[in-house]
Amino acid sequence: MCHVIVTCRSMLWTLLSIVAAFGELIAFMSTDWLVGFPRTPDAVFGPHGATAAGEAYRPTLGIYGRCIKLPQMKRRILCGPYAIHFGEIASGFWQATSIFLAAGILLLCAVAFISVFTMCFQSIMKKSIFNVCGLLQGIAGLFLILGLMLYPAGWGSDKVQLYCGADAAPYQAGLCSMGWAFYTAMGGTVLTFVCAVFSAQAEIATSSDKVQEEIEEGKSLICLL
């Protein structure tokens, strides 16, 4: 018989797990990892920014995508992938970053999907589903940390120097500033470890004596604070 068990701690863990997975996925797909120095579409690029007069804008560069403004497009900014194939990503460090982030996000999405069903199923092959998911989130967090640590090492690539100037070097962003996607990825990584730790609380809440008492009373829907 399926017992639907809903507690505040288990629902909070489920919500945070979904937020962490969604945040990391959005950050990975975004082009707003680096924000370049101000320039105009027809500018001559120098070490200190754009030299041509006109309405300036700041291009953005992601792990595999970018947003730029073309001369023939007066107001619209064109966003899309600059790398069609994996080998075209700006540097080997960013390729490694892509692999680690993708692996972490895949695990987080799997946990987020499973977490929705934890109201009905609390075990997998006689193992607590919360403990298993917490372990997967911890592994995902390690993958995310490795990816974020390797990401700045790729700032010395030719691609980054086009956006950030000749001063850009590994772990030195040059004339660029960090975009919201980088901070979102960092926040999602912290939240991932919070979820991994909090999964133990979700397990305790759904296996408490009060839950067992209500199961013995024959209740199929159990809601506890």
TrEMBL record:
> Might you name a Gene Ontology BP term for this protein?
single fertilization
Cleaved signal peptide residues: none
Q: Name one Pfam family in it.
A: L_HMGIC_fpl
- Where does it mainly reside? membrane
What keywords are assigned to this protein? Fertilization, Membrane, Transmembrane, Transmembrane helix
Q: Is this entry keyworded Transmembrane?
A: yes
Q: Does the keyword Transit peptide apply?
A: no
- Please list every transmembrane segment annotated in the UniProt record, as residue ranges: 12-31, 93-117, 129-151, 180-200
Domain of life assignment: Eukaryota
Protein localization: Membrane
* Membrane topology recorded in Swiss-Prot or TrEMBL: Multi-pass membrane protein
Q: Which GO terms describe its cellular component?
A: membrane
The record's section on PANTHER family has: LHFPL TETRASPAN SUBFAMILY MEMBER 2 PROTEIN, LIPOMA HMGIC FUSION PARTNER-LIKE PROTEIN
Protein family: Belongs to the LHFP family.
Report the protein name in the record.
Lipoma HMGIC fusion partner-like 2 protein
The opening ranks of the lineage are: Eukaryota, Metazoa, Chordata, Craniata, Vertebrata
